[in-house]
Design brief:
366 residues; mainly alpha
């Protein structure tokens, strides 16, 4: 078994170390995000993907958090400023997109939609898929605070992670009850900010779990038999749990923190992460085009997350592909959307990264 492969890279003035296994896992994750968004809402495959694809990114983010303790909030915010800058950039871009582009093609400006977008941006609830970026930012800040203030062992941090996830689901049920009781403008003011907070607390449960997994995951990567066991047993268990949830008519959507039974949701998230992690370790053993392609997608996963759904790309793919065979049609749609994203990453992504670096330099978060 090869050791964990690392690659040094430079972002701005900061030197970072990329781990192939992490990038491959992110690449697999963003592929699943694209596939999940193209599948029908009630499909069995979509529910499997939705049961773990967002927690997967959170756990992976926790695994790359530095072990160095930093209790000062301003320093942690500054270190994670790339996320909040990306969030604000894409939020403004989405609002301008709604105002100009949709007007050109649809000939209609929805003022209420634009006001709602601005409100969701300011409350960190997030416009469409951008909820992931704001939630990741907050979750990483909370995780770093827990790491610095509470000098705890991995198993104790795991207990804290589970408590955070469980308490957020409990409070979310109370919020839904309040949402149904309170009507009008007050409901709108309360619901979105509170759901954003609870969602961030829930996802902190996964980011914190990622910091616990770090040493054990490295052992798994060095043990080939563990990889095969995780892929087989984990995959089978995930299918059984999702089947039970579907029979109970429980859908997974972490955007709205709708996960049904908290225990099975947390278990599915961990199982999905372990399966993808094991598969990424297996792929990393071979130096081929599949590995290179997945690493590329993983490195650009945040850009792809922000562009793949909201910018009418799905509608464009639907117009281009019209085949009677449903399976073949979905397969071609996925391939077409991935190709569009690769082209965007290649010709637009590098300027986007330079722009974010420039914004961070001109408007530093001190």
């Amino acid at each position: 078994m090869q050791p964990i492969s690392r690659e040094a890279a430079k972002v701005g003035n900061k030197k970072i170390v990329r781990v192939d296994e992490i990038d491959i896992a992110k690449g697999l994750g963003i592929l699943l995000v694209i596939v999940g968004h193209l599948l029908p809402e009630d499909s069995w495959a979509r529910q499997i993907i939705y049961s773990f694809h967002m927690p997967l990114f959170m756990i992976l983010s926790g695994m790359v958090i530095s072990d160095k303790k930093e209790s000062k909030l301003s320093n942690n915010i500054k270190k994670e400023s790339n996320l909040i800058i990306a969030y604000l950039f894409w939020s403004v871009f989405y609002i301008l997109f709604d105002f100009f582009i949709k007007f050109l093609f649809i000939r209609m400006i929805d003022i209420e939609k634009i006001i709602a977008d601005i409100y969701q941006m300011c409350t960190l609830y997030g416009i469409s898929v951008l909820w992931f970026i704001s939630t990741l930012f907050i979750s990483k800040i909370i995780t770093k605070y827990i790491n610095s203030v509470f000098n705890v062992y991995p198993y104790k941090k795991a207990v804290i992670a589970i408590l955070l996830f469980g308490s957020s689901l409990f409070l979310r049920m109370r919020l839904v009850e309040l949402h149904e009781e309170v009507k009008g403008f007050l409901n709108y003011i309360i619901y979105f900010p509170m759901l954003a907070v609870l969602r961030s607390i829930a996802m902190t449960g996964f980011v914190l779990l990622g910091t616990c997994f770090k040493p054990y995951f490295q052992y798994i990567q060095k043990n080939f038999s563990s990889i095969k066991i995780l892929m087989c047993v984990g995959g089978g268990t995930a299918i059984i749990l999702v089947s039970v949830n579907l029979r109970l008519k429980i859908n997974f959507d972490y955007h709205y923190l709708e996960v049904g039974n908290g225990i099975s949701a947390y278990a599915l998230a961990i199982i999905g992460f372990l399966c993808i992690g094991a598969f990424s370790s297996f792929i990393s053993l071979f130096d081929n085009k599949v590995k290179t392609a997945l690493c590329y997608l993983g490195k650009n996963s945040l850009f792809i997350m922000a562009t793949h759904e909201y910018l009418l790309l799905k509608e464009l793919v639907d117009l281009l592909i019209n085949i009677k065979n449903p399976f073949l049609e979905k397969l071609l749609e996925v391939v077409a959307l991935i190709l569009i994203e690769v082209l965007l990453c290649k010709f637009v992504g590098k300027y986007y990264n330079q722009l974010l670096i420039w914004i961070k330099y001109v408007y530093p978060l001190n």
